[in-house]
Fold this protein.
Amino acid sequence: MKSIITYATALLVGVLPFHAALSQSAEEKGLEIATATNQRDSGWSHVTADMEMILKNRAGKESRRKISFRQLEVHGDGDKSLSLFLEPKDVTGTAMLTFSHGLEPDDQWLYLPAIKRVKRISSKNKSGPFMGSEFAFEDLGSQEVEKFAYRFIKEEACGEGFQCNVIERLPQYKSSGYKRQIAWIDKEHYRTIKIEYYDRKDSLLKTLDFIGYNEYVGNFWRADRFEMVNHQTGKSTSLLWTNYDFESVLDDSDFNQKALKRLL
Amino acid sequence: MKLPKNLLRSLTIWCVLFWSANSYALQINYTMDLEWRGFTDTSSVQERFNRDVSVGFETEFRTSFNDGNTTLTFTPFGRWDSRDPERRHYDIRELNLIHAAGDWEFQGGISKVFWGVAESNHLVDVINQTDYLENIDGEDKLGQKMIQVSRSFEQSTLSAFILPGFREREYRSSDDPLALPFKVIEEAQYESDDGNSHIDYAIRYSGYYASIDYGVSFFSGTSREPDFIPGDTPGEFVAYYPQMDQFSVDIQVTDDAWLWKLEAIRRKYSQRSFNAVVAGLEYSIYGMADGLFDLGLIAEYHYDDRGDPAAVTFQNDLFLGMRFGFNDAESSEILAGAFYDFDDQSSAIRIEANRRLTNNAKISIEAQLFTNVDIGNITYGLRHSDYILLSLQYFF
């Protein structure tokens, strides 16, 4: 129901009764936190934003990508999203349309502007790098509750002075590159502050930090900066988000194969 | 390069218009490519074409207004070639206005349209004339005048096209190694009395259902593909464009890492008709060699019931291809493909590789080898035309 970029909160929910927390298993509490996180970020309807991606190799050499992004909230199914690539210049105008479906394979179309072709592509490549970056496709995809099994681990301080619930997430969808993830979610607004990714051999692969949360119209929280570090290769990728807009005029007709061709 | 005066004038007007009106909303993308082509068979008559250098330039002006619902695009393209004067050509790839109103979309002007799912040949894709001056692979298209109206439904789109103004196929100079093996007379002939101003029309219904993408199309009008009839001078031919009705279907089933593809056409001329099909699959293996590259495997079979290898390129042919996509920051990619003709054992191989150099530049290499060409095959004229093409693209 929600992408990783949209961990945020809309409404205040009552504090969990203490006795309920005591009688809960770690799995139940983990699921409850994930469900609440999802709940807090429901109702944003649609959003547009611009993203700049900075890839750094071990030697510090940088390359950049620019993407214009729009997303439509779908009730009862995964979200629809459309990414328009602006840079590097050789891919300017290339666009990707994704209809995500939780545990079912996503529907995905790629638009190639030079030949005006819209091509349905396989969405199996979950663990592959997105545009050569340290973000895998699955890291940026829609994060529905049912995609993971959860386990509450502990509470601890995290990020810039937040109190966090720490939960473990085990991917339930096919072709994930991870055995598990550990997520730090702040207790006040249910924002994701940090995620650790463990590879299939259960070694720590990557850490993602969400920095600079802002509250937008409708009380939705979005981070300005995602910092992903790959501990095994020494490479890193930063995502810088700007121009978040929850009030643009978008509807379902802006998320179809036809719309792919008139984006630029 | 021959630039008609009125074209230059219109170009200037457009530029001024674009700059003065809403210049902040105008996007301009320039693409320049520098090509170097070398033919490997230096002993053949094509020797003067060795070290052929060419420059192409395309500019895309685009502006949108009305909350992004109306878009104006102008994409002129031109190429200069050091050896082949016919390759010094100019085309307006796009000059169109698109207006989207909810589920409706209206488009008028010069546009490009792509139909189909196959990789190695585009059977159902009949709206635009193929630009063989650019490349013999048939991927480049000339702009086509059209009025298009589309209505989108939940998971499908119905489009109707009115296509005034036919574009003739253009040919390389007869001494260009990649030219047809005979001279084509400048003046074309048409079945229709309206000649190249016959108004064609087309209709297409396309969409998806679960893992299936489909398209059903009908086209009626001037065939983009000419017949060659002997001219008055022996050895010279006239391109003759008959009228045709074409009905086609294209289907792709996307099943996990497998893509299953089918394109089929039935084409009816006034005197004859034929059927053709391309069917195949694409299979992807992600993260091979510890994530170093993704491998795509493509197999496509081509059939055409005219059955004559001397007249039809893909009458009983197999295409096998491999795509290596390296997961690096430079998006390095290698494509290798081979055609094999079951009827006369002719074969051809093409290898393409490309890599990003900077945010604005890309380098690519293409090698085309006609490994075995039967005397009765349509590609016989190309038997000495193996080449390597090095190209540098610059975007700004």
Remarks:
- Chain A touches chain B through 39 residues (CB under 8 Å).
- The mean pLDDT of chain A is 89.
